[in-house]
Amino acid sequence: MTLYILAGIAIFTIYILMLFPGRMPKEVDDQLWTSYYAHRGLHEKDKSIPENSMIAFTKAVNAGYGIEMDLNLTADGKIIVFHDDSLLRLCGVDKLIADCTYEELSGYHLENTEEKIPLFEEVLRMVDGQVPLIVELKNSKNLKELCSKTAEMLDDYEGLYCVESFQPLIVRWFYKNRPDVVRGQISVGRKSLKEIDVKLWQWLLIISFGTNFITRPHFMAFCHGDARRKLGLSLFHLLTGRLVGWTVQDTDDIEYCMKKFDVIIFEYFEPETKTADQR
Q: What range defines the domain where residue 115 resides?
């Protein structure tokens, strides 16, 4: 019996060491954790204001919300703000982003509006530090190029920001090359797994926190609907890791989300802003 107890203690200790978060940089402003973040900007359900568009980002800035956005890499090495791998859903064209140059992409419109796919540098110039940013890097066949170019742009940016990704190798890149940049691992429970494009083996590693020892994320960004009774998340938070909940809508249990997570990413409604002390 004693042997089993010791083995259990050893396994639990190893698990704790595996999921331990990275040490938060001292200079990180608390405002990074006290804001609501508009998912892909303040876009509209009726598509009149498209997601990840300049108008959606401008609207979020004017309302005082932080912004969550997605970065992709074009065939000619330009960083654009666009969620999908393909143009089909948002532009009606069956082409991959990775196969298109930025000049080609600039000829397409988002959701039948006048809005076009913005460059990351354009969004940074417009936001200009007025609100904090959560920058998600999408999985790319040129992963290192996407990471290095994003990091170089953010090096010159004076506003508050953090980075995140589903791809652990992207989180690891920032851990090794920009250790003072706040980084997060995105994850999701089994219930919502079918909604995202992540390989099963990759998900199993992420959901078990099996990649934390090589990435040491400062926060976990978790699908809010899958977060209940997740021991790993609670332990990660107890060990000073931050929790970000995505994507919260007005039909969800907002009160639970505000208690569970340090930050929520929302869409299709505008929540009342509250400080950390008020929560």
A: 38-131
